[in-house]
Predict the 3D structure of the following.
Amino acid sequence: MMKGDLHYEVVLDTSGRAYQVYFTDAVREDLPASIASTVTVTIKRTGEKDEPIPMAIDDTGESWIGRGREVRDPLETRATVTFTIAREPYSIDIPFVVPAAPAAGSR
């Protein structure tokens, strides 16, 4: 996804083992995770209390990473991702997208 010239990728793992947020510049060169501050991911399940995921910069400095509970019904779950870049806060709601199984006979 994009915010101006900033590209960001959000990885939502239904197992809950690894939520990640990566940043790249306008030409898709990797940016250090420290380009952003106050990165948060909040998992919102229908009929349940919101689950804030504690996020921290990973050991390589490439992304923000956090862990949470398993998502059993991705179609009824969304995530709110927030971060601050250059003192400007940003927030977006995104759905969980589960990759489709490959068709029989496809590579």
